[in-house]
Fold this protein.
Amino acid sequence: MQIKTYNNQTITIDLEYSGGNLVALPALVDPHVHFRIPGDQEKEDWHTAEQAAIAGGYTTVFDMPNNIPSTTNRETLEHKKSVIQDLFDDSQVHINYKLWLGATTENLKDIEDLKNEILGIKLFMGSSTGSLLVDKKANQAKIFELAGKLGLVVGVHAEDEKEMQKQKKKIGKTTDVTDHSKIRTPEVAKRAVTQAIELATKYNTKLYILHVSTKDELILIDEAKRKGVQVYAEVTPHHLFLNENDYASLGTKGQMNPPLRTLEHQDALWNGILDDIVDTIGTDHAPHTLEQKSQSYGHAPSGVPGIETCLPLLLDAHNKGRINLEKIVKLTRTNIENIFNIPSNNDWTIVDLDLIREVKNENLKTKCGWSPFDGKKLKGWPVATILNGTIYKC
C-alpha cells in the first residue's frame, strides 16, 4: 500500500491495515537510553528493550554507560558490546545502536584511545544512578579540553553536586518524594549548566545538555547559542508531560533525575521547542522494577521508562495543535543525526493519527512492565515500524 509521508511524499510498503489516518515518519532516534545491560537485566535487557523501542517507533538508540560495571574503558566497552552481540545472536531484531563512554577522573587516555569507537563522552556533574561522578571543576575542564581537541561530544548530566548536597542537608532525612524536587532545585541545574557552557566556550567543545528541565537552563542555552557556542538542549517526555502535581498520583514512580518541575518550567520547555532552543527529545528510558520503585523515598531508585510512550504522547500533542509533525521529526531524528554526525537510514515508522488507545502497563514490551502514563488515553499511535527493510507491527 501507498502511504503519505509527513512532508507529503509517498512510500510503498507491504502493510495490511484497514482504515485510519496513516502517515509515515522517519523512524525515531533516541539519543538517551539506559537498556541496563550489563548488570541490571532484571530491569531490562536488549530483547525486551528492542521490542519496546520498535513498538515506540524507534530503530536507533544511543545507550548510556552507567552499567555494572560502568562503561569507561576498552575492557568494559568490549564486554558491553559482546553482551549485546550475544543477545543479538538469539534475536531476529537487530536495532541500530551507538554507545556513550562514561567520564571519570582517571580515564582521559581511554577516551583518546576509543575516540573512533564511541558516540561521545557522558559526564555526570552531579550524582545520579550508578557510580559515575566528576564534580570538581578542574577535572571537568580536563575532559572538556580533551573532547574539544578530539572533536567529541560531551553529554552532561547537569546538576551541581555541591548545591545539591547543600539542599539535601537543609531538608534533612525525609521520606516525602516531593522533597526530591526541593533537593534538586532549578538552581542546582542552573549552576551546572552555567559551568558546562563556560567550559564548552573556553575549549570549543560540542556540548549536549541532557534532560533540560528548567526555564533557567533554556535562558542560558539560548544566550550561548546566540554567541556561537556549540551547545544543544535535550528534553524528555516526562518533563514535557508530567510536573510536580503528578507526585500525588505517582509517588516514587514519578521520581527521576533531574526531578519533576512546576508548571512554569514545564511550559517553558514547550516554548523552548517552539522557539528552536530545544534541539532534541531523548526519552531517558530508565526502567526499574515496580518492586524497586515501590520503596519509600530515600530507597526507591530514580528513573522511569519512556521509549514506548514518547511518540504517542507527541502525536497526541500534535492532534491537540501543540506541535507539528515536521517539528517532531526534527526533534526525534534529523537534529540528532546532525548533532552526532551519524548517517541517515531508510527506516520508517507508520503512525495512525486517528488511533485512540489507552496506555496500559500490561500491554508494554519493556521488561519493567509499567509506565508513569498508565491509564492515559492518547490519540495517535505507531502501528508499524520498518527496520532495515523488515516490517514489525506495533
Notes: The mean pLDDT is 96. The radius of gyration is 20 Å. Residues 186-203 form the longest helix (18 residues). The longest strand covers residues 348-358.
